[in-house]
Amino acid sequence: MAERPRILQATTPGTFSRSLLSNITSTPNVSAMSTKNEVELKNFFIFNSSLGPKEGEEIKKIVYYFPPTDSNDQQIKNVGLVEGIIQFTETFKPSSEVSSLHTLKQRQLYYQPEKDFWIVMTLIVPTVKKNKDSTSTIEYLEDDIQDNVYSAVLQQAYLMYRLFWDTFHNAFKKDDINVFKTRLDVFYSAYIKTMKLAHSDILNIFSGIQYLPLDMQSFLKVQTFINELECNYNDIVHSAFLYNDHLIWSGIEPSDMKIAYQYLIGTLLPANMETELQGGSMPRNSGSPFAALHHGRFITGPTNLKTAKTVGKVPKIYLFGGKTPCTYRLAVYRALSASVCLFIKDVELSLGFFKELDEFMSSKITSIVSDIAEYCSKQVLTPSSLPESTPRFIYFNKLNLAYKSTVHLDNKQSGNIVCARDSLKIIADINKKKGIFGHSGEVIVKTMNDYWVVGKTSNSREFYIAINQKNASLIDISDEVKKICDTELKGIFFHPI
Amino acid sequence: MESEELIDCYLELSKDPVRFEAVNQLTNVFFDDSNKDVFAVRSGGVMGVVVKGPSNQHKPLKFRMEDHGPVLSIKFSLDHKILAVQRTNNSVEFMNFNGDSIEAEYSQPSKKSSNILGFVWVNTNEVAYITDHGVELYMVISEKKSLKFLKTTSIAVQWFVWCSLNKIALLASAHGSILQPVVLSGGSISKLPKVETEPGRMALERDVTLATLYGVPAVLILRHQSGPQTAEVHVHTLSGPGQAPVKSHVLKLGLSGRFAINVVDDLILVHHQASRSSKVFDTALSGETDGTVRYHTSIAPAKSFKPATLDIPGLVEPQTHDCELYSPNWVVFQPNVVIDAKLGCLWHIYLCLPEFSRLIPDLSICTQVTLKRTDAKEVLLKILLESIKQEKPDLYKIQEAFNHINSVYRSWADETVLNQMANSPGVPIPSRTTPNTRVLIDQEDIFDGIFVKLDNEDDLGKLEWVLLSYITSLAEYGIAVNHNLNELTVTTLARREKFTALQQFLQYGVVSDSKPLACLLLSLGNMHPAALQMALDMLARIDAKEEIQEVLLSEGQILSALKLAGESANPRKFLSAAESANDNTLFHSVLFHFRNSPQFAATFKKDERLIKFVQHYTTIFQDM
């Protein structure tokens, strides 16, 4: 690909700077002789211009800045540049604010979650170094960074903070600015380390929830368990029930659940799994081998009820999906492979309350989990057990945020995928342009390397299929898609039926 | 305190007892528990005999007999046409009775002058003597004023107990340590296997009761224990092969002293004289079991009878007499008769189910017990509703209660299906209560008796919980949920604005699909965007293509609807929809779709109503 002279190119969501087709064909094949640098974070900062309007006080605008190694001057310069771009683009009165800035070597993404607060993330464009005739050339892979994917990453970073610390403005009202800054620092310094920029893809855009397919009987058992729990303990306002990393029941709005789900799947449960594994699979220090097996424990709150003196850490969380924002304490109870999330009223919690809950849940949860496990064991097909060449699909329902993917072999964002990365990128591109479909529509894309990517949308759902089939005709692919839709989209209305 | 206890009383004596002349120096009183007749015999019958039936509706019979000595036993045949009177130890006199006087007398001595312990009417004209040597069966031929010997069996007998309902006599020998049941019917005497008790364990006549529990004859033996242990009732049901008695239940009384036993509505009542209270047992409950015998404790706290009074004619005005309850003069007869011979009263014992059921502390047991009682539906529904309306209802127990209810509901449904298959169509559906289902509570009953009454703003949360419990229970018993319950689930969740929950219920198939329900979801579309999606999904599942078309059209998705309609499309409908959509390209597409289709092209020439669309098309596109 020839190097083109670049000018500053600001894009807004309303306008597309590149055509869909060029994106597909221009992705270069990375040869074995080359070395590739993945996308990297250059900086990440949050500022509010109204905090330091006077000259000389620019540093006050910055409430968080990463990396901390950048000098104050550097920070002020970077923020100043962003402020300039934002003001400049506003003069053109676009339909929405500026969202990204493309340069040859960098990509900058802007997000204004609340009035005057901007979160900015600068990424270093991945490069490939090609060695040819003892001269090496560096090629910038601009198309590897998809704006919609990384905007979603940025938004997630905000929503996760808001889940635990409330909105910026509310925190501002309640606390001193320095407390606010420290909190941002503690939160984001840890959060940034967990961002998996190189493996961000369409799933970040969806930021959906995986539901467990389950028979009605087992679902009802879970449901009645939850009802009993909430009926017995009035302080428990909502609950959610997960089996491994699949959701079975959630009493809170999907828009809140998706963040809580990301926290559970991405942070809390994996951390807990590690401590479980360190303890060995069998409890070694139980008093008597004949003592009744006690299967559950709290993983937030008093994690060891026998020795606990206090209720421990029960994180406060803020939900915004309902009519009015609500504050709860989140206690998570884990037994066997199930996790019960309790959204408890923000009141003083006692150790006795947790002990009672433990007794209540541990006695009932075993039979529920064994039912679920039995049902799941009958569903032998997992994405990894399918043959390599099987068409892969990603499904998403906007209205309950449910997603399913046979492309991703896990949900750790570790890049463990079974189709070409290009196909995933095409899916993200189709998603970006799904507006042209209207209520329902379909796009079929063929790549240079004989991959076919099909995107369909209907009835508020999206369905993407990646097929790797050599020398196939459009009719073959269309038939194949129909077959997949027939099996995978049973029981829902998905046009055409 | 006392009045509070009285409110809780669940046993009562009949309000209008059968009154008879009390026992005195001249008058003897007899009770025949086959016909439930009370005989007041004055001076051996010379001064008259008054016979009163079990209820006050029948006119008492009055007649005189000649005095042949003191009467030992007196009983009418089952049709009240022959009177049998025993005055000596080895003979019974028979008299033909025409309704108000005796017409003829004849007598029949026992074989070999054996000692007659008693006699029983087995059938209208069959009488059996139980003697110390065994059983003798005779047929009475009233026209010939004679008896015909039918059959005899020889067993040593010391005393016996008779159950007129099952025609079973229990013959006791060796001081009650050997108990031999015999069935007297169809002119024959058949011995059943002996009641197996601990070897050598004796029993008194008054401690042995013959009863029928849930249609099965049973021998109830009161066992007094020595030392600190309390008394027990051992229940031997005649349920083994060949009606062999099987010791199947032990009732733990927790008391000792004098007891009396009655059976009301298949519940065993054990009256305790010292504490003046009665305990109730249900052998249908599972109880604790050791594999063969089930051990039961009383299901509700022991309570006394409700106070009973008698109106006695006074000098000036009638007086009220408080009857002594648990009096030493009481004699009980099966199944539910109490006689106070001194007072001249015969009562029937009744169970007040509402009070009784309310006193059973465990809702699950309460449901099991109540489901097996007569006319219990309203009572049970009321109790369920009360427990649901509590501050913190015990959903677990409520679920168990639903499971018991639905277990009966399911077996009734199965029986109905079997009956329908056996019967030809057109035969009316069997009544809602077959012998095996005393109380059938179906979905309509629960809906009207519980859910409707929770349908107010304050109880909506409870309604949701209980609906789910009930649906879960129905699912467990494989019973399809009625539409009104599905509808109530959807509307309840909608009223609580729990659309997320509704989505999940639909996703997991908790709410079953139907067109009316899909329409209901559609109507909720303005409350939540997901409602439309759920409605379309449901319509797709029941393959309601036409309805989907309509929905798509109303949503302005004209092309999608058109694709779905295919050849069955109505051109006018689509064209007018496209016209009102104000989208020229769309109108063009729709019009050309019909015009280019060979199927519809012809209709454009014929149907004048389509012409205006063509005209509209030309007005739009003429400038281009």
From TrEMBL, chain A:
GO cellular component, one term: Mon1-Ccz1 complex
GO biological process, one term: vesicle-mediated transport
Domain CCZ1/INTU/HPS4 third Longin per the UniProt entry, residue ranges: 388-484
Pfam families for the chain: Intu_longin_1, Intu_longin_2, Intu_longin_3
InterPro entries tied to this protein: Ccz1, CCZ1/INTU/HSP4_longin_1, CCZ1/INTU/HSP4_longin_3, CCZ1/INTU_longin_2
Residue span(s) of domain CCZ1/INTU/HSP4 first Longin: 41-164
Boundaries of every CCZ1/INTU second Longin domain copy: 236-361
Family stated for the protein in its record: Belongs to the CCZ1 family.
Listed name of the protein: Vacuolar fusion protein CCZ1 homolog
Automatic annotation (TrEMBL), chain B:
InterPro entries: RMC1, RMC1_C, RMC1_N, WD40_repeat_dom_sf
Residues in the signal sequence: none
Pfam family, one: RMC1_N
Boundaries of every Regulator of MON1-CCZ1 complex N-terminal domain copy: 29-147
Organism of this sequence: Brassicogethes aeneus (Rape pollen beetle)
Protein name in the entry: Mic1 domain-containing protein
Mic1 domain mapped to chain residues: 373-596
Single GO cellular component term: lysosomal membrane
GO process terms (BP): regulation of autophagy
